[in-house]
Design goal:
By secondary structure, this protein is an all-alpha fold. The protein folds into 2 domains: 83 residues, no CATH class; 258 residues, Up-down Bundle (Receptor-associated Protein), CATH 1.20.81.30. It is 83% helix and 0% strand. The protein has 16 helices and no strands. Helix 11 runs antiparallel to helix 16 and helix 15 runs antiparallel to helix 16. The longest helix is centred in the middle third of the chain and has 57 residues. The protein is elongated and about 90 Å long. The N terminus is likely disordered.
Length: 373
């Protein structure tokens, strides 16, 4: 009776009305990095001023214009009000925030350094976002030029070349090889254009499916690392992400093994991901971090391994990795700044060769016809 009476008196936890909606939004929608930066920055300021976590989450949810973030924060706020930790509430939306975000928050709550962790997380997200934005921005110009070149070539083959080449087909004159190739491509596009489009769509679909398979993704990423210019940039980006992420996790007192697991999920290249997972197992067996990363010297060059060794010996691995991340991020930033100016002459040469080849294929038969008249 006393137990039943106590159970009846004990207040039940408030029901979370945002639970189902938040889960559905988190599953089918994503929150931009800019909104996450806004969340972390505002939350850090409010926690520093002594505002309770639940009130801070409610305030930020009311301020944000992103509907998904608003619903997710309201759900996390209700979980905090029910007595759960901030990290526990975020775990319900792992697809939105990711392991790195949640693990750093959990480490900050456990160590009582949530404000410091939020500042570190802000730096991590901002640096990573800036790095990705710089790479994407540098690749937009050559991508637009290449797409425009292909589009103009296809339109020329379909609408212009057939009218010009009608003259050559009516004249009994041997055509040069370049002209015959041009006629074949033009006839193929005009007569079987729909099949060409369907074939390309099928090839792209098959390629995407293969890349999403573990073996196919590994082979694709292996090939990317061996491209002349892009391979070097991809290596630097992955090294910068490893150094920055691992440093941030170490600063929040997260265990080395767990840090390897989270960092392996953050790096984008499958070769780096597998190497870090293997390194985690080696550290479990008693090897130090430098020895665990030496299995592939092409992924982690000697200078990075030496910096890791110095950091381990001095007990300042987090600071050493942060400086290394800064170095590689600046290197990638400088490379991306100069890359368009390096690619532009190559694109001009390719465009010139394409136009010259097409012009030769059209002009050479005209010269032959004029000689036979």
């Amino acid at each position: 009776m006393e137990g039943l009476r106590a159970a009846a008196v004990e207040p039940s936890k408030p029901r979370n009305p945002f639970s189902l909606i938040a889960k559905l939004r988190g599953k089918f929608a994503r929150i931009p990095v800019a909104q996450k930066l806004f969340l972390v920055q505002q939350l850090s300021i409010m926690v520093k001023t002594g505002i309770s976590l639940a009130v801070a989450l409610k305030t930020i949810a009311e301020q944000t214009g992103n509907k998904t973030l608003k619903v997710v924060l309201s759900d996390v706020q209700h979980e905090v009000e029910r007595g759960n930790t901030f990290a526990k509430g975020l775990e319900r939306h792992r697809a939105v925030f990711g392991d790195l975000f949640i693990s750093m928050i959990a480490g900050g709550e456990a160590s009582g350094k949530l404000e410091e962790v939020l500042n570190q997380l802000f730096i991590q997200l901002k640096r990573d976002h800036a790095l990705v934005a710089k790479v994407r921005g540098a690749m937009i110009y050559p991508a637009v030029i290449i797409v425009a070149m292909i589009g103009v070539a296809i339109l020329t083959m379909i609408f212009v070349i057939p009218n010009l080449l009608t003259i050559f087909e009516e004249v009994d004159v041997p055509l040069p090889l370049a002209t015959r190739i041009l006629i074949g491509i033009s006839n193929g596009l005009t007569s079987y254009g729909i099949f060409v489009v369907l074939g390309l769509a099928l090839l792209i679909t098959v390629f995407v499916r293969i890349v999403h398979l573990p073996g196919g993704r590994y082979a694709y990423h292996w090939l990317l690392l061996r491209l002349p210019v892009a391979g070097v940039i991809i290596r630097k980006i992955n090294i910068a992400r490893f150094c920055r992420t691992f440093s941030s996790l170490l600063k929040t007192d997260i265990a080395i093994i767990r840090s390897f697991e989270i960092t392996a999920d953050v790096v984008g290249n499958e070769l780096y991901r597998r190497l870090l997972r293997e390194a985690k197992e080696k550290v479990k067996r008693g090897l130090n971090i430098k020895e665990s990363l030496t299995s592939d010297m092409q992924l982690f060059p000697p200078v990075v391994l030496q910096m890791v060794a110095v950091g381990e010996e001095t007990g300042a691995l987090d600071n050493v990795l942060e400086e290394s991340a800064q170095f590689y991020e600046n290197d990638v930033d400088q490379t991306m700044t100069t890359l368009p100016s390096l690619i532009e002459p190559i694109l001009i040469v390719v465009l010139g060769l394409g136009v010259a080849g097409m012009a030769m294929a059209v002009i050479m038969p005209m010269y032959s016809i004029s000689q036979n008249i």
